[in-house]
Amino acid sequence: MLNNYRRSAHQLAQLVYEQGIRSQQVLDAIAATPRHLFVDDVLKHKSYQNTALPIGLGQTISQPFIVARMTELLLQLIGSNAKVLEIGTGSGYQSAILAQCFRSVYSVERIKALQWQAKRRLHQLDLFNVTMKHADGWQGWQSNAPYDGVIVTAAASELPQALLEQLNEGGVLISPVGGNEQQNLVAVKRQGHEFITQTLEPVRFVPLVAGAIN
After folding, report:
1. Which of 8, 23, 47, 62 is flagged as catalytic?
2. Can 8 be counted among the known catalytic residues?
């Protein structure tokens, strides 16, 4: 059974490669990560499809291509020896990919039950360079700022100012922005007191909700 999942993860890595992902570090992380551990039992048969899946509480595990795309973008812009803030831990799958690509990851999740499950999964995979916090993602994680990169895994109606201010000089934020009708992935680079925004491509994410719940 384990070999089947390994083969499936390698096939998933091949699939995102065929869709344009070229970072070997990201492809290796996709191939090494058992995505079935991050979804409910009833959806395990869909674990290695290139599709978003519900994880309960109105949240989803993102499409593997989008996880790979956002990670690759950050790698290209800030390099692997970087400190990254993730907003929206969710299932922990994106966290697991980030952990294999960057020096250290700080991840904030507003739903306590999801954060606890994600932490358990990452420890199960011996990924210990991710530090987690249950809090309002709109506020970031000020006490550990600044960050070289920020990755937001839910769509904000507008970029949270707190996240921009927690970027290092030259740091980059990758986030979906928009409402229910239209969302775009954007990259924002900090240059002194200015923030240079580049719009990349249309995407589809659940909304970034303010506040934290137990």
Report:
1. 62
2. no
